[in-house]
Amino acid sequence: MAEHWDWLRLPLSGSDEHRIDVRAAWHGRVMVVSWSVMLPLGVLAARYFKVMPGQGWPAVLDNKRWWRMHLWLQVGGSLAGLLGVLLVLGMATRQTALAQWHALCGWLVMLCACVQLVSGFLRGSKGGPTCEQWQGDHYQMTSHRVRFERLHKSIGWLALLLALIATLIGITMVDAPRWMALSIAAWWAALFMVGLLLQRAGRCIDTYQAIWGPAPTHPGNRRRPIGWGVRRLPGD
């Protein structure tokens, strides 16, 4: 058992020691929490929990729990990412090819986060029977809303991919302990498996139907859902 633990404690390269600047170490910890925990969980909440288990949909509509989870995980993850950037801003680093790729992917993730936050703020009005005014970008599925959904979903998937790449490069670049690399890899594999199981279970329900139901009288139900693998039920 001790031999296995000793092997896990070694850096990826097999070196006898592992040294890293304190600021860089905290940068890595914060970024793992931001990019590997909070942001992916926010994506899972938005994609698979628009209708909660036991909600009784479509009799019970517009459950906002998924929205709150998505909002706070994405905003919190973005702020944690900003803190991670500030921790290493101005640090002198060896400009190896790995370091350059890590920095590029990292800045692109932060750019994606900014685009997501701004686009979410500018997503337009809601409308529909639960609002004082029926006319709204979302309920009517205006061109503004369609553009928002296409951009928001595309950038979200891109940010996840870039975050994974930046994380893998980062732990390789600092020659992280093997237990850390294996733990992060296992976590991402678990996220993938959970997403796959929820997708196969039909949990990816169209946002429009989750809010207003499948009735064909709602204008948004007359067009195809936006995004891949989105489930839409036929109206009565």
Automatic annotation (TrEMBL):
The cross-references to Pfam families, in alphabetical order and at most eight, read: Cytochrom_B561 (PF03188)
Q: Name one GO cellular component term.
A: membrane
In this chain the Cytochrome b561 domain maps to: 1-208
Q: Where are the transmembrane segments?
A: 30-49, 70-92, 98-118, 155-173, 179-198
Q: Where in the cell is it found?
A: Membrane
The record's annotation in SMART domains points to: B561 (SM00665)
What protein is this chain from? Cytochrome B561
Main subcellular localisation: membrane
Q: List, alphabetically, the PANTHER family matched.
A: OS09G0557700 PROTEIN
Ordered alphabetically, the record's keywords are:
Electron transport, Membrane, Transmembrane, Transmembrane helix, Transport
Which species is this record about?
A: Pseudomonas fulva
What InterPro entries does the annotation carry? B561A, Cyt_b561/ferric_Rdtase_TM
